[in-house]
Structures are given as structure tokens and as C-alpha cells.
Amino acid sequence: MKATARAHTNIALIKYWGKRDESLILPTNSNLSVTLDGFSTETTVHFREGLKEDSFLLNEQKVEGAALGKIAVFLDKVRALYGKEIYAQVQSVNHVPTAAGLASSASGLAALAAASSKAIGLSLDNMELSRLARQGSGSASRSIYGGFVEWQMGEREDGLDSYAVQIADQSHWDIRIAAVVLSKTVKKVSSREGMRRTVETSPFYAGWLEQTAKDLQEIKQAIIAKDFEKMGSVAEANCLRMHATTLGANPPFTYWQDTTMRVMQTVQNLREQGIPAFFTIDAGPNVKVLYLPEDEAKVKNSLQAMEDVEDIIISKPGSGISYM
Ligand code: 2P0
């Protein structure tokens, strides 16, 4: 009862920002991401009779506390599908070229969903797998697929219609995504806490929801038509709107640092020079820059010239779940 799976992380171009059901992880809006080939998690799950609890090794280090708790809660859902109490040894390796806090729960929970369901003998299709991964971490539902992926929010209370679908695979469009790793990042509000506080208290949240549904339709058309300016400008505006909701929360907060804003400025300067480059930012200070392969040297040089940029990790659209 052992299986190994690999998943890549993803970056949202239309953000998932808020839950309508915290326990099933059902979002308030449909959202869309691109899977990144530069970051992945490989996870082995071994269910064994006689174990009294789950255990977790991450990059060969024993993990306990809240991180183990998240895994055990997720494995409870897999055990419930299987119908029997049996515990597992979980071993994960994060393939992230730097220790910069970029490893996301998306690749981790997607790999765990695939490996654990296979190990326990369930054979789930991608829709079922996406629905399962969603219950570990919302963004993990999208990492089941490669390329451009939409997580459809669904309407049901039981979440059966809330899962991701592929809009276009990784060979559809050769774009680049540079993850700009900043030095001296400060401790952030977790995305779970940040989205909860925003949904509950920010008067800007209603405006965010209204516009994001329109953004999603526009970006899907842009992706299919390979209209880079359109895709980039919609993604950038959507990111700015998501971050604007946090300033309206009570207590207010922001994920941005001074360095975050300087990278945003650099990207805007590139555009003024005629280079189509766009940024997006998740629940943290690091910035991801979208650009076309022919502009790589100029984009990289501008970012590398900046103070406080520690690393630049370049991805292409990556693949979905695979089994080892
Ligand atoms: C996203 N983020 O769409 C958004 C944009 C952060 C900002 O999904 O609570 O780790 O486990 O469902 O998926 C990060 O949140 O949150 C996230 P949970 P998750 O990528």
C-alpha cells in the first residue's frame, strides 16, 4: 500500500481569495492558474497496518505540529473514502531551487492527494483527484493539471461540482514566469487567515467578487487567443484588486514590502520601454513576472540589477500529476 506521485505548483492569474465553506474548502469565486515547471513536490505515502498515527518527513526532516496536523486531517478524508482506519508514513521532497518560502501548499497537497489515494487502492480520475486535493488546500485542486487551469467554484453545498479543469495544456503557449525572490522578507499573515479576515471585514470584498468573474472570462479568451498583452494586463489588474481588499480589512494588512513595490515599478518600467511584462503577487511579498521568451535577457537583467533581489527562478508552463 505504497505509492509515489509528483505535482508542480501553480501561480494564480485570477486569484482564489475567500471561502464560502472553510471545512470543505469551497471558494467564493472561480479562479485560474498556470502550472509551473520550476517547482515540484514528490511524495511517497505508505499505509501500513500496525501504525498508531501518521508521520511526515519533509526533505528528510521529521515534521510535527501544525504541518503534520494538516496532513493527518487530509489523510482522514482519504481514510473515510477507503472506509478503514489505517495510518501512513508520508515522505516528501520539495524541488524548489531555493529555501525562499516559495514551495506552496499547492504542489504538496496535490502530490499527497495523488499518492495517498493510489496507495490506499482508490483509482480516482482527474476530476475526483482535483476535488480531493481541493480539500487539502484550495490551490492544490489546480495542480492536478498542467498548463492553464480553471478551478470552477461550483454551486453545490457538498462541493461535488467544485474542481479544476484544464483550459489549455502546457504545450499550448510558450510563456515565461520569473519568480523574484526578495531578501529580508517579513512574517506574513497566512493566506487562510488573510482571506478569512478579508471576506468577513473588508467593504471592498463585494467589488472584488463582482469584477473577478469578468476578469476570468476575459483571461480565458486571451489564453485561447494567445493574446499576451491582454492576459498580462488582466492578471496584473486582478492581482492589484485582490491586494486592495486587504487594505480594507479590519485590522487592515498588506502582503507588500517596499521591495515588492520596487519590483512592480521595474516591471512597469519594462513596459514603458516596449517590453510586454506583467506582474502578479500571492499572499506574500515575492513577485512573479510574466513575459515572452524573446524578452528573457532584458527582463532578467532589469530584475537582477535591483537591490534586495536574492534570486530569480524561471519557469515555463508545467505538467500535471505524474506517478513514479
Ligand atoms: C491563489 N492563494 O489563487 C491564491 C492567491 C493566495 C493568493 O490559493 O486555505 O494555500 O489551503 O485553501 O490554497 C493560497 O491559499 O489556501 C492561495 P487554503 P491556499 O493561488
UniProtKB/TrEMBL annotation:
* Matching SUPFAM superfamilies: GHMP Kinase, C-terminal domain (SSF55060), Ribosomal protein S5 domain 2-like (SSF54211)
Q: Where is the Mvd1 C-terminal domain?
A: 180-305
Instruction: Report the EC code(s) recorded for this entry.
Output: 4.1.1.33
Which InterPro entries does the entry link to? GHMP_kinase_C_sf (IPR036554), Mev_decarb (IPR005935), Mev_diP_decarb (IPR029765), MVD-like_N (IPR053859), Mvd1_C (IPR041431), Ribosomal_Su5_D2-typ_SF (IPR020568), Ribsml_uS5_D2-typ_fold_subgr (IPR014721)
Would the keyword Lyase turn up in this protein's UniProt record?
yes
Give GO MF terms, alphabetically: diphosphomevalonate decarboxylase activity
Enumerate the UniProt keywords alphabetically.
ATP-binding, Lipid biosynthesis, Lipid metabolism, Lyase, Nucleotide-binding
NCBIfam families xrefs: mevDPdecarb
Q: What is this protein called?
A: diphosphomevalonate decarboxylase
User: Which organism's genome codes for this protein?
Assistant: Oceanobacillus jeddahense
Q: Gene encoding it?
A: mvaD
